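pinned: reference chain
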Amino acid sequence: MTQTRGFARLTFWLGVVVTVGFFWVNTVGFVDTHTGSALGCGHNWPLCNGNVIPSVWGLHTLIEFLHRAIVAVVVLLLAVFAVCALVRYRQWTEVKSLVGLSILFTILQSFLGALGVLLPHDPPAVLAIHLGVSLLALTSVLLATVVIGQIQRAERTGGRVVLRPQLPDLRFRLWAWFSTVFTFIAMYVGAFVSSTGAGGRFQGWPLPAETYQVAGWAFELDVLHRTLALLLVLNLLLGVRWTWQFRRQRPDLFRGALTALICVCLQALSGMLLIATSLSIQAFLTHVTIVTGLFASMCYLSLQVCGEPIRKKTTHLRAIHGGRQNASTY
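pinned: its structure tokens
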């Protein structure tokens, strides 16, 4: 039993390490894109300027090589985490699904990264999709780790393991799933604005001071981005008000909605900082870090409103104390 619990704790902390690793992969990747270092290793992949370790170094080469090195380490750690999670929690549908998604999105992320290097020109649409997939990979690992933590906490109490008690009504569940998709679309538009360089053409906030005659097509794109951000704020205000009504029964949903609202408000302020600092790298990294927190919060909400799948009896009957089953909630 002690060895089993030790292996479970190891699996959980591996998930934490991999999640942090993905965060750094994305951060260095954002720096890579922002500084124009994507071709620091030339049009070579996985080699760097024809070598495993480049013989000639420059700032762009250093950033690109560092990005690839961190990716390699994180992929190796992800493989170890996936094996441990599937061995220890193979009977849990959520863990298997999220681990599978994390592997899928990691492979897709690597493919898009290679595509961006090998193509003569990296299309803005590919750059924006790359950002979205990298966030999906990180969030999948994060949610898998969260679920493992929930299982461990519930198992320690004994009795029947219930991860998501008192399912909210269908309207709220549809709102959570819709809002997550809407958040992803808003993020994609923001990433497309960044990858096209359109964001650097504007100085006004919260409304652009420039006109269509001055900015051209970038004006429409920027207005779309700001409109989606405003709608997202209003939508999450509704979500916090909604979850407040059942915060005692499902405090996890209230915390998730409140965290998402705080993130989207901070994201708006970081957008102002981006404009005020003429797209400085510090403001850019702040912006994308907050976006990561926002999307992770929405994915957490989407997971927490899903119903419990049918479990095998051995999965959720861990212990019976005094001949009585105790319900465990998280």
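why pinned: Strands lie at 160-161, 327-328. The first strand starts at residue 160 and ends at 161.
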